[in-house]
Design a protein that fits this description.
Layout: E1 4-9, H1 10-24, E2 27-31, H2 33-37, H3 41-48, E3 54-57, H4 60-68, E4 74-77, H5 86-91, E5 94-98, H6 101-114, E6 118-125, E7 133-134, H7 135-146, E8 151-157, H8 169-185, E9 193-195, H9 199-204, E10 214-217, E11 240-252, E12 257-258, E13 264-265, E14 270-275, E15 292-295, E16 298-301, E17 311-314, E18 325-329, H10 334-342, H11 346-352, E19 359-363
Parallel strand pairs: 1-19, 2-3, 2-10, 3-4, 4-5, 5-6, 6-7, 6-8, 8-9
Antiparallel strand pairs: 1-11, 11-14, 11-18, 12-13, 14-17, 15-16
Helix pairs in contact: 7-8, 10-11
Length: about 375
């Protein structure tokens, strides 16, 4: 019997992808990095491969894992790769993000040695500040790359830092800087793909991004939103449900301290259930004493500090028994609400539940 698990409805994910594609009218890159936010990169990619145009990952290792699993669609490593990894990328038909001369020089060597072209997307830093060419350097760099017959420049892209904000000023500044780069390059390169839209951008900046033709979507395929107000722009099905089980039940008198740090003291005779989930499974410790799980559809409060392997809930007045299921998440905005409560983003909450101990159960595969 499972102790803690996530049920992942692959049909809902599939339908969400179809709805997003229809909404944007653009080609679709499924961002399945970080084991698809912990929910299973290979399993999900296999389900949606027939309806997406590209996959996006963060590392060469993730890209190779997809290839070894039989994924045939194009794969872009959206982060920088080391020069030592260029050969593996080229041999496995993996698209490289190119934004520095060190990787460019290695591509030249590798393609000459193995007699095979490399496919690249040029990355421009318009204001995210992580990786990418400076706006003022992009034109000259692209003109240098385009001279190399062994390199196919398939695309050019940038990344938005505040796409979910209601205040669009910074995003518009980034978009305009990206357009400036494209204007400066002009007709020198016929990019198949020009992309800057991430999940919140397709919902919050749809009109502003009309000139681009590839969307990069990750979190939204689960029906999880970077900001809850964006849900009304495109309502999607929540495709995930998380559960744990009651492992132990007892009653304690008023004045009993509970868990590490004795942060909770009972104010009355209290019936307590110990659950088989903790922060080692992804249930964030910051939710201690401030959040509710569900027993038979009813809220039950977390009491005491969440431990690595166990969590306590107040089940006073409820028919709680060992082995019963407790819903950790499964209703609209559960992941987003957890993120708000602890002051982080839904992506981090979801990745936490990617813990190996949180078993993954795939439905409608």
């Amino acid at each position: 019997m499972k102790r803690a698990w996530v049920e992942i409805d692959l049909n809902k994910i599939y339908e969400n992808v179809k709805k997003i594609k229809k909404y944007t009218g653009k080609e679709f890159l499924a961002a399945v990095k970080a084991n698809c936010y912990g929910m299973g990169m290979v399993e999900i990619s296999k389900k949606i491969e027939s309806i997406v145009d590209y996959f996006g990952v963060a590392t060469i290792g993730e890209a190779i894992e997809l290839r070894e699993a039989g994924i045939k669609k194009k794969i872009l490593v959206m982060g920088p790769i080391l020069p030592e990894d260029v050969g593996e990328a080229v041999r496995n038909d993996i698209t490289i993000t190119l934004c520095n001369r060190e990787v460019l020089m290695e591509i030249k060597k590798v393609t000459e040695k193995i007699g095979k072209k490399a496919t690249v997307h040029i990355k421009v830093d318009t204001g995210m500040g992580r990786i990418g060419l400076k706006v003022e350097e992009a034109k000259d760099f692209v003109e240098e790359v385009v001279k190399e017959k062994s390199i196919y420049i398939e695309g050019i892209f940038s990344h938005l830092a505040t796409a979910e904000w209601k205040d669009k000023e910074y995003s518009l500044w980034q978009i305009n800087r990206f357009k400036k780069v494209l204007d400066e390059i002009g007709s020198k390169v016929k990019f198949k793909y020009r992309h800057i839209e991430n999940t919140p951008a397709i919902l919050n900046l749809k009109e502003e991004c009309r000139d681009f033709n590839l969307t990069r979507i990750g979190l939204l395929i689960f029906g999880v939103y970077t900001e809850k107000y964006l849900y009304n722009r495109l309502p999607l099905n929540f495709a995930l449900k998380g559960f744990t089980r009651i492992l132990f039940v007892k009653e304690v008198p008023k004045g009993t301290y509970l868990s590490y740090g004795i942060s909770f003291c009972t104010k009355r005779k209290t019936k307590i259930a110990t659950l088989g989930i903790g922060y080692g499974d992804g249930l964030r410790r910051q939710l201690s004493n401030r959040y509710f799980l569900r027993l038979n559809g009813k809220n039950v409060k977390i009491i005491g500090n969440i431990c690595m392997d166990q969590t306590l809930i107040d089940v006073t007045g409820k028919d709680a028994k060992i082995g019963q299921k407790i819903m950790v998440f499964g209703e609209r905005f559960d992941i987003e609400n957890m993120a708000e409560k602890v002051g982080t983003v839904p992506q981090e909450i979801l990745c936490g539940f990617g813990s190996k101990r949180m078993e993954k159960v795939y439905k409608n595969g």
